[in-house]
Amino acid sequence: MDLEGKKPQCILAVDLGGTKCSAAAIDRKGRIFAHQRAQVDRSSRLAPLKQILQLAQEITGSRRAGDAIASVAVAVPGLVRKNGTVWAPNLPGWKQMPLARLLQRDLGIPVLVESDRNAAVLGEWWRGAARGKSDVIVLTIGTGIGAGILSGGNIVRGAHELSGCVGWMAVSDKEVAQARSVGELEALVAGPAIARAAQQDLRTRPKSRLSKLEVAQITAHDVADAARQGDPLARRIFEDCGRILGLAVANLVSLFDPEVVVIGGGLAFASDLYLDTLRKAVLRRAQPLAARKVRISVSRLGEKSNLFGCAYLAWQAIAHSRHSVSSPS
Q: Which residues pair with 169 in a beta bridge?
């Protein structure tokens, strides 16, 4: 749908990840009118910024974004400081990127920036698997691992905006390679970790469907495909993944007593391979009353949860700017 020439009744939501960038025009009721997606351009520090501007132009069909959209909200894979700068370790040169200021300068409309984990929990709360709940955790598992936490209806941010860095959870007493750079949980069960486990196992257990592939090019998707075809090596990797994730979720359930834990991110597509194991680990290891009451489900929004969370934030900001206390319906 071309939004050019229309009165601004949509906002532009952008989900900037470490590998993919998507954007959508979303109205107050959560309806998507246009959606674009591309691989993140990591060729320079400003390349992702230019990419967002290009996506904005493609979606609005207008050289002036303000003619078609009311504001912009961007989810980023990292930390958003109180001064508005972004630290995103997976994007080159993004230690103190003034993303909101630069986008607002070029687009001429208000811009909000939020961490992807917080956007995810707001998206699931507004239009996903956590509607109507006030105590929610969204565990996002993909290239990295993070958690958006809603407690009593409020985002848990922490003193330094670092709450939800679940990838750094310690789930064993072993020395885990890559743990010092990305965190232990992320080093064990994120997408790259699953691929890495398969590559390592194939060196000693070559009898696998995966051995037909170029070992160095194996991805988590390849491992999931093999597991669904009954490959023992691949199935064991995902069982281990479910067990370890179950320990992490058990800790989260015991700490925050949520009503629902939503599994999202790129590895949610493979939840059929590890969700039962995860749930059993939570029942076995979490605080007993909380473990029996919590609902553990898979995201209904998929990769759009961050976009819906951004949309909610933008509409809320517009409502506040108009001295309204109402939120989008």
A: none
Owner of token pair 């691949």: 234
Per cent of the chain over pLDDT 70 is 94
Q: Using the predicted structure, report yes or no on whether residue 329 has a pLDDT greater than 50.
A: no
What pLDDT does residue 328 have? 43
E strand residue ranges, the chain: 10-16, 20-26, 32-39, 69-76, 79-80, 86-87, 111-115, 136-141, 145-151, 154-155, 260-264, 295-298
Domain that holds residue 170: 129-300
Q: What is the pTM of this model?
A: 0.90
Contact between residue 315 and residue 72 where contact means Cβ atoms under 8 Å apart: no
Residue written as token pair 């319906």? 329
**Torsion sign (Cα): 128, 155, 147, 143:** positive
Name, in order, each residue with C-beta under 8 angstroms of 132's C-beta and a sequence gap of 6 or more: none
Domains in the chain, number: 2
Provide the CB-side half-sphere exposure for 131 (13 A, CA): 11
Q: Are residues 189 and 239 in the same domain?
A: yes
CA-CA distance, 24 to 33, in Å (whole number)? 7
- Looking at the structure, tell me whether residues 104 and 141 fall in a common domain: no
Residue pointed to by tokens 């959508």: 24
